[in-house]
Write a structure and sequence with these properties.
Chain lengths: 117, 108
């Protein structure tokens, strides 16, 4: 089991550029979550999908952020245009929602550290 | 969204000392989880608690699910340098809600 795979690990971009973060969930997991982590705000849930369908995107900060999950094995989080205040670590996590025992799910990727200059 | 309050925010302790941290919420949760995040990595699950009053151990870690279902505690005994990291609590109801984190530094 390769775990949740995120790419890239680090991204440095100029303000105004488009940024795309990628996530491959654990095979068989049917729920996927995007989080943002900053020193000031901790871990914030941005959006989550069940069976590739967006369920709750109330955490997405503004229209510049969008997320897609075209199939069960891939999701993207896009920021367009990026701003310096978007600098953070973005985590993807996946889970098998059919299992009630949390020990069987909610595995995090290693994150993408985004710096917007 | 919902946020859980953790305390203390940070701790600096000597190797060998015991550590205690807690997490409180204004809402009731069905499950409490504790995660550890190493520098540059994502959080990793340490302990899960399923019912009020439950006390669970995992090696040197002990966690308790508060009777009111609104809080949880994590203790680490005889700390070692590799315990350094950020510890997060999480409560689950319809969603996962994460705590604000406790940063632990262990001084050799």
């Amino acid at each position: 089991d390769a775990g949740v795979i995120q790419s890239p690990r680090h991204e440095v971009t100029e303000m105004g550029q488009e940024v795309t973060l990628r996530c491959k969930p654990i095979s068989g997991h049917n729920s996927l979550f995007w989080y943002r982590q900053t020193m000031m705000r901790g871990l914030e849930l941005l959006i989550y999908f069940n069976n590739n369908v967006p369920i709750d995107d109330s955490g997405m900060p503004e229209d510049r952020f969008s997320a897609k999950m075209p199939n069960a094995s891939f999701s993207t989080l896009k920021i367009q245009p990026s701003e310096p205040r978007d600098s953070a670590v973005y985590f993807c996590a996946s889970r098998d929602v059919t299992r009630t025992d949390p020990l069987y799910g909610y595995t995090f990727g290693s994150g993408t550290r985004l710096t917007v200059v | 969204g919902q946020q859980l309050n953790q305390s203390p925010q940070s701790m600096f302790i000597q190797e060998g000392e015991d550590v205690s941290m807690n997490c409180t919420s204004s809402s009731i949760f069905n499950t409490w989880l504790w995660y550890k995040q190493d520098p540059g990595e994502g959080p990793v699950l340490l302990i899960a608690l399923y019912k009020a009053g439950e006390l669970t151990s995992n090696g040197r870690l002990t966690a308790q699910f508060g009777i009111t279902r609104k809080d949880s505690f994590l203790n680490i005994s005889a700390s070692i340098p590799s315990d350094v990291g950020i510890y997060f609590c999480a409560g689950t109801g319809n969603q996962f809600y994460f705590g604000t984190g406790t940063s632990l530094t262990v001084i050799p």
